[in-house]
Design goal:
Blueprint lengths: L2 H13 L14 E7 L9 H13 L8 E7 L7 H10 L4 E4 L2 H10 L5 E5 L18 E5 L3 H14 L5 E6 L5 H13 L3 E6 L6 H8 L6 E4 L3 H5 L1 H10 L4 E3 L2 H5 L4 E4 L2 H16 L16 E5 H7 L5 H6 L2 E3 L1
Parallel strand pairs: 1-2, 1-3, 3-4, 4-5, 6-7, 6-8, 8-9, 9-10, 11-12
Antiparallel strand pairs: 10-11
Length: 326
């Protein structure tokens, strides 16, 4: 039994729980193509995988009974995603679930007709949809993008580091332009100098730190991206090595030793993604399903990292935190 078959068997067993109250009609078996950036059991994003699967279960889907899933795993090699997306298209799946922004782009390039559901950083800026309210294509789902938190992150950094004068933002080619604009606008109001350093692959992380440290910044803001999320432990370790306070969008890097995070709960978005798959399998058109934006944000602070950096977190921030890691 090869790895793909073995992992699919595991997923089938985990989904085959007692049928939920809103079960799908007996006899109808839908075919879902799942484009995965890593693997089902990857410690990097298995909690996101589980959140999506839980969402399917809550909607009454049981693999092997009313749902068949074709899994395609990139195993962390994002350059494999286009070929894997093409395989799913050739199988004529009913819906493709793309579990990353890179996966959504690969799926969109592979087909203009099969409905695609994804959690993407900037669907409009990346050309996945025309507008968030009216996608007008075959992609729909949720976005991590929300301009408002970008400004608040800069305000929190200034609150944490009163003498802060310059910040580096670590980005990738798919970083949302609107988020960067909000950060830069907020930085200007706070009299902070901002520059960006781009990373195109995980192999560039060490090189990126060599660049961003000349001149040395007062803090590092890490944009939301699959590359950074999948390599968050290594990224946080590099930041600690260079004694850089870090601000991220997701809580997972803060749990991995980055200093502070302010953003949406990504697992909740993946659970919500299942509702889009459900609607599409029941006949809805992607063009008629608006892209959902996050409305709730969490503040996570890592006190262990603060101690390692010799920083004292202001009480005003601690009192607002949703999670404090001690």
């Amino acid at each position: 039994m090869d790895r793909r078959t073995f992992l699919a068997t595991i997923a089938g067993g985990l989904l085959a729980a007692p049928l939920a109250a809103r079960a799908q009609p007996e006899g109808k078996v839908s075919l879902l193509g799942w484009l995965h950036p890593t693997t089902l059991d990857s410690p990097v994003d298995s909690h996101l995988t589980e959140a999506f699967r839980q969402g399917l279960h809550e909607l009454g889907y049981v693999e092997g009974r009313n749902l068949r899933i074709e899994y395609r795993f990139a195993e962390g090699h994002f350059d494999r995603l286009p070929a894997l997306a093409a395989e799913l298209v050739s199988l004529r799946v009913d819906v493709i679930f793309a579990q990353s922004t890179n996966g959504a782009l690969a799926a969109k390039k592979a087909t203009g007709t099969i409905p695609i559901v994804g959690v993407a950083q900037d669907p409009v800026g990346l050309g996945l949809v025309r507008t968030l309210a009216r996608p007008e294509g075959n992609f729909t789902g949720l976005t991590l993008m929300s301009p408002e938190p970008g400004g608040k992150r800069m305000q929190m950094l200034r609150e944490l580091l009163p003498r802060l004068t310059n910040v580096v933002i670590l980005v990738t080619p798919t970083t949302a332009a609107s988020v960067l604009n909000e950060i830069e606008t907020s930085a200007k109001r706070l009299a902070l100098k901002v520059r960006t350093v781009e990373v195109r692959s995980p192999d560039n992380l060490e090189g990126a730190f060599s660049v961003l440290m000349r001149p040395r910044p007062g803090a590092l803001v890490i944009a939301s991206d699959t590359i950074f999320f999948a390599n968050r432990q290594r990224l946080c370790e590099l930041a600690l090595k260079h004694r850089l306070p870090t601000m991220t969008q997701e809580k997972e890097p803060a749990e991995a030793s980055c200093l502070i995070a302010y953003g949406t709960n990504i697992a909740d978005l993946y659970r919500r993604a299942a509702t889009y798959v459900d609607k599409l399998l029941k006949g809805a058109k992607p063009a008629d399903l608006p892209i959902e934006q996050p409305t709730k944000f969490e503040l996570v602070i890592n006190l262990q990292t603060a101690k390692a950096l010799g920083l004292t977190i202001p009480q005003s921030l601690l009192l607002r935190a949703d999670q404090v890691i001690e």
